[in-house]
Design a protein that fits this description.
alpha+beta, 5-stranded antiparallel beta sheet, elongated
Length: 97
């Protein structure tokens, strides 16, 4: 998860994400349980500046867990969406317990 927003990845503004999915999960922390809104944006194509190949970026945001929009990358739109879902799961699993 260290390279989620590396400089070569497209950066997204929360207000400008084309939201594909929105959900609310329960977030447990030291203060108790609270809802956390999750937004997943529509994957968009971009050219990888390192290789020149077309990749897809899928932005996501987890309220209370990510400071800004995170960019997941994949070889195609479904792969990028799956990468975003894995990233969201990692964020919640990392903070469990």
């Amino acid at each position: 998860m260290e390279e989620h927003n590396s400089s070569w990845k497209p950066q997204f503004d929360l207000a400008k994400i084309d939201v594909l999915l929105e959900d609310a999960w329960q977030l447990k922390d030291a203060t108790g349980e609270r809802p956390a809104r999750i937004l997943v944006g529509r994957p968009v194509a971009f050219l990888d500046p390192r290789s020149g190949k077309e990749l897809f970026a899928c932005p996501f945001f987890v309220e209370g867990k990510t400071e800004r929009v995170v960019t997941a990358v994949g070889l195609g739109p479904l792969n990028a969406l799956m990468s975003a879902c894995i990233g969201i799961r990692e964020i919640f699993n990392k903070n469990r317990g």
